[in-house]
Amino acid sequence: MPKSLPKPAADTNPVAIPTKQRAVYDALRAEIMGGRLQPGEVLVIDALAKRFQVSIIPVREALRQLQSERLVEIRAHTGVRVTPVDVSALVEIFALLGALETASAIHALPRMTEVDLAELDAILHTLETTAISGDTAGFEQANRQFHLLPCRIAGFTRAEQGLQSILAEWERLHRLAFQGTQPPSPEQANKDHRAIVRAFRQGDVEKLTQVIQRHNATALSHYQKLMK
User: Fold this and answer.
1) The CATH number of the domain where 62 resides is what?
2) Pair 63, 122 in one domain
3) Least confident stretch, 16-30, 94-108, 153-167, 200-214
4) Distance from chain centroid for Cα 145
5) Alpha carbon distances (Å) from 198 to 10, 101, 102, 212
6) Residue 6 φ then ψ, to 5°
7) What is the pLDDT of residue 219?
8) Are strands 42-43 and 72-75 parallel, antiparallel or unpaired?
9) Where does the HTH gntR-type domain lie (predicted)?
10) Is the per-residue pLDDT at 15 higher than 60?
11) Distances (CA, A) of 87 to 11, 31, 76, 108
């Protein structure tokens, strides 16, 4: 990990250049998700500012963003620490995933256009090709895109933010608490993904709700068995 922020390359598109806050956020998030920064570890803002060679302002902003994803805790008088991994939150996480995904999908249904359906099809194709090739990281990324898209179509920005936060918490929990365990079958997951797309195309609210709930219940059951 470099000790200072990367210098932006000469680019005519300023949007492509990451801000200092984004660079600090990306670096810390990667270290938390990867386990380099351990659960419970204390983060000192002044030390982080010195490490990344920035002022404390972008560090504070990055930490607030990480707090919104439940990756760090910011407490008055006690400072900042990496959030502990809570395996007991498993049921709550999947309940919230199911609720947010279902609500977003139902409200996205009447707004769904052919362009939106084509985007879902494209993501589904990526899910299927990454499942076949064994590209776990690619599958996870496509899976996240698949489940977030209905939020944007529905215009549910709060649901999207909540879903992103819960997915981040789940991704970290999965990596640290279930490392080395067998994940649910991606082939079975993709059967559900295909059924979701089919329900969107048919405008079938009941089937859509049914498949999303089953999709999350199957994953929850899989990880609960691993905890026994």
Assistant:
1) 1.10.10.10
2) no
3) 16-30
4) 9
5) 45, 16, 15, 12
6) -65, 140
7) 93
8) unpaired
9) 18-85
10) no
11) 44, 20, 26, 32
- pTM passes above 0.85: no
Q: Domain containing 205: what range?
A: 87-227
Q: What's the token pair of residue 3?
A: 């000790």
CA distance 228 to 191: 27
